[in-house]
Specification:
The protein is an alpha/beta fold. It is 18% helix and 25% strand. It has a 9-stranded mixed beta sheet with strand order 2-5-8-11-16-19-22-23-24, with no helix packed on it. Belongs to the transferase hexapeptide repeat family.
Length: 256
């Protein structure tokens, strides 16, 4: 006599087993990410010249070398797979001065690269989206008879002012000097000097909007400025406000 097979029972057991394994994997990965993060209290193998309090390099880190010549300010957020390098290659003596400096509150998005073969300075509260590339080195191609990769590169310092926003996939080339509160559009390729309070876009990047105290934004902004949150409003009140339906006031008026 054959015993009928209940496929639903086996499917339920398999689904439950998969759910348990999935939960275990996520918990282990969360533990690995937390344990592998680099902070001032837990630098791991990395020995930066300075890493400020509140600064965190997410795990897994990208390529990091030359850290004795790298200074990270306070409360910086370094995303996963971010490359930070000082010098052309590891184990070089770069002298007494800092080569790569991040100010306080700098954010580097996932997969970004900061390559500092000569000095690179990123001002405080500058935010970079994912996959931003900042470099002080460029390939040279002066000799048409030699492979480009074998010719000695050119190096120029890079300075990014405080309060900038650098969009996803932007490239900051050697010699670039960005002023205060500069906006770099996604995918832009920036070289040369950019004044304070400018918006640049394109490859090569050019100024597409700028601000001055006497004229404001030129060309004028196409969207209204965001309304600031009034003082004293709590997060709970904001959540309640977000749950209100947009047509609630109109419905109330129609009932009157």
């Amino acid at each position: 006599m054959s015993v009928p097979t209940n496929r639903n029972t086996f499917s339920s057991l398999a689904a439950r087993r998969r759910g348990v394994l999935s939960l275990a994997v996520h918990r282990v990965w969360a533990w690995v990410r937390e344990t592998g993060a680099v902070t001032a209290q837990h630098p791991g193998r990395l020995r930066f010249r300075r890493i400020g309090p509140g600064t965190r390099l997410a795990f897994p880190q990208g390529t990091v070398f030359g850290e004795p010549w790298i200074e990270l300010g306070n409360h910086c957020v370094i995303g996963e797979q971010v490359t930070l390098t000082a010098g052309l290659m590891p184990d070089l003596d770069l002298g007494r001065e800092t080569v790569l400096t991040l100010g306080d509150g700098v954010v580097l998005g996932r997969g970004s690269h900061v390559i500092a073969d000569t000095t690179v300075t990123i001002g405080s509260d500058t935010y970079c989206g994912p996959y931003v590339y900042i470099t002080s080195t460029n390939h040279s191609y002066d000799d048409p008879h030699q492979p480009v990769g074998r010719q000695w590169p050119r190096m120029e310092p890079v300075v990014i002012g405080p309060g900038c926003w650098i969009g996803t996939g932007a490239v900051i080339l050697p010699g670039a000097r960005l002023g205060r509160n500069v906006v770099v559009a996604a995918g832009a390729v920036v070289r040369g000097e950019v004044p304070d309070h400018a918006v640049v876009a394109g490859a090569p990047a050019r100024v597409v909007r700028s601000w001055t105290s006497d004229r404001g934004w030129q060309p004028p902004l196409r969207t209204p400025a965001p309304v600031p949150i009034p003082e004293g409003v709590t997060p709970e009140q904001l959540l309640l406000l977000a749950e209100l339906e947009p047509d609630a006031p109109e419905a109330g008026r129609s009932e009157r």
